[in-house]
Amino acid sequence: MRSLNIILRATFTVLSTCSCLAETNVDKREFLVGGDISMLTRIEELGGVFRENGKPGGFLAILKKHRCNCHRLRIFVNPTYNNAVVQDVPYTIALAKRIKAHGAKLLLNFHYSDTWADPGHQRKPAAWQDLDFDALQKKVRDYTASVIAAFKEEGVLPDMVQVGNEITPGMLWPDGRIGHDAADEQWDRFVRLLKAGVEGVKEPLGRTPNIRIMIHIDRGGDWKTTKWFFDNIIKRGVEFDIIGQSYYPWWHGTMDDLRLNLQETARTYGKDIMVVETAYPHHSDSTLRTGEWSPDRMAWSVSPKGQHAFLAELIKTVRHTPNKCGLGVLWWYPESIPTKGLRIWCQGAMALFDEGGNALPAVKAFEATSDRDGCGSNGES
């Protein structure tokens, strides 16, 4: 019996190791790097100019030069058009066309809200507020399908789609709200909404290549909660391809915490994993002075050099995820240079460009990421 158990465990390990490779032909696919650049058009409209070595070069062209090959765009149902909440379907399709024209892959991020959806806010769109649950479920599917159909019609189908943004606490509150004390009934309701989104992505595709589905949570350095969440959705039959994580060290732990989570996630689920949100400051800002910035989590200097070191270490960490399941790293809001008429997150301290729009050293960290073949089955190079 002991020998049989050993054989079974070994077989499970081999299958888990192979699942990333067999599903997606991962050995022939490049490691993905870039950013969530959802505000690029708006910043340019307000006069923002991006440069390298003092010369205007075009934001996407500069990042492409440094081997960025993937960008994320968010989309709101009926955006408020307040400050950074401007991403409706026409705006997002126009920016998607620019991304595709530069040869990059596109990750489309459904917020299922009229404004920010994140761990503290998962508000239903105003037009959906009075729907009963069955009607809400249908609306999620129909709305998602209509957006994907619009992108297909314009020739800019996304390569990947996030069904919800940082949905650790669920989505479309209160109907789809979950927590560690959530009853099975509430989990089931959340999963019905999640499946409706997945079905909506697939419905308009027909014979076109399949879009890969990402489920995104905000627990980069938290294996316990990651396991709790994905165990629950997997046992309820949610079909998806990629696990997305947010990782901001001051909120989500040390690089060692992230490394442990990546290792356990890869070995447990055998799916591609991507850090789809991250950032680190290149200068100090009053909004950053908080007790959350403990020295062990902020192990890099708050400077252009420190920002580069952080991103370089993060990319190396994700690339070395076991079983070649580390898919990529996207920087949050790299275009966030100070712009007249716009409130910018942390006054531009997290951008990959300085106040004058000049590219910072951190963009060079993307250059070491051309493919995923450097990682062995145990995450070693």
Beta-strand content: 5-15%
Q: Largest sheet, order of strands side by side?
A: 1-4-5-6-9-10-11-12
Basic shape: globular
- Tally of separate domains: 1
Class derived from helix and strand content: alpha/beta
Q: What order do the helices and strands follow?
A: HEHEEHEHEHEEEHEHEHHEHE
Unreliable stretches (pLDDT < 50, length at least 5) are 1-19, 21-28, 373-381
CATH class, anyone?
A: Alpha Beta
CATH architecture: Alpha-Beta Barrel
Describe this structure in words.
The chain is an alpha/beta fold and 381 residues long. The chain has helices spanning 2-24, 40-45, 59-65, 89-101, 133-153, 184-202, 223-235, 249-252, 255-269, 304-319; strands spanning 32-36, 51-52, 55-56, 70-75, 105-110, 160-163, 170-171, 176-177, 212-217, 242-247, 272-278, 326-332. Helix 10 links the parallel strand 11 (272-278) and strand 12. Mean pLDDT is 90; it is low at 1-19, 21-28 and 373-381.
